[in-house]
Amino acid sequence: MKSLFRCIALLLLALTAQVTLAQVVVRVPPPPPPRGAIAVRPPRPGFVWTPGYQRWNGRRYVWVPGRWVRPPRRSAVWVAPAWRPHGNGWTFRNGYWR
After folding, report:
1. pLDDT tens for residues 20-58?
2. How far apart are CA 43 and CA 76, in angstroms?
3. How far is CA 72 from CA 4, 39, 49, in A?
């Protein structure tokens, strides 16, 4: 019985891993960012500006505005999210702290 449970658990884990690795390819290129002002100074010392980006909602792009955030550690650098050409479409890479 334990081996059956382990087999099922491994199968579910493998299926979950396949789903999380899937990328959405959008055939329409992302539009340029909208015009608009950003805050000139951080709200408090130590905050970093993370710029906005275009998010695909399944039918169209939606602008996600930038914001001031506190880095997770002193030497952290924000790598902005970006759309990359991929075959005949575009794929999205999330922003992250390096």
Report:
1. 457 899 999 999 998 876 667 899 999 999 999 999 999
2. 18
3. 42, 21, 13
Q: Provide the pLDDT confidence category of residue 18 given band limits of 50, 70 and 90.
A: very low
Residue corresponding to tokens 């658990």? 9
Decide: pTM greater than 0.85.
Answer: no
Are residues 97 and 77 in contact, defined by beta-carbon separation less than 8 angstroms?
Answer: yes
Q: Are 81 and 94 in contact (CB under 8 A)?
A: yes
| Residue with tokens 């005949």, as numbered in its chain | 88
d(CA 21, CA 35): 34
Sequence ranges of the domains in the chain: 26-97
